[in-house]
What does this fold into?
Amino acid sequence: MMQKLGQTNSIEFVNLHDTAIAYIEKKEPYDIIYVQFKAFINEHYTHPVCKELNQRYNENFTEYWVFMRKSNPKTGDLYATNACPGCGSPLSENMGEISKCSACNGFQNFFFKKQP
It folds into this structure.
């Protein structure tokens, strides 16, 4: 909608005040962690023609992010195996430093992975 109106949103400042684990849940086949982020934001909305749409906000806010992984991953030592640490599926030998598991779509970073 903003794009159709020609309105823009600019964030001038964000300050993260606090993070906390809000809730941990085991819902097979997943482990789920809910993380609370408390922050302050300074942002403004502007429109080049319609000045009534121009608004400025300076406010504290709270967001909750959800992190999920498969329960009981099949791997132990990330660097001793070519299995996905998230789901245990075998990973291709020719994957790059940052790769995506085809089974669970999890991203892996193998920059420090031991070479055979």
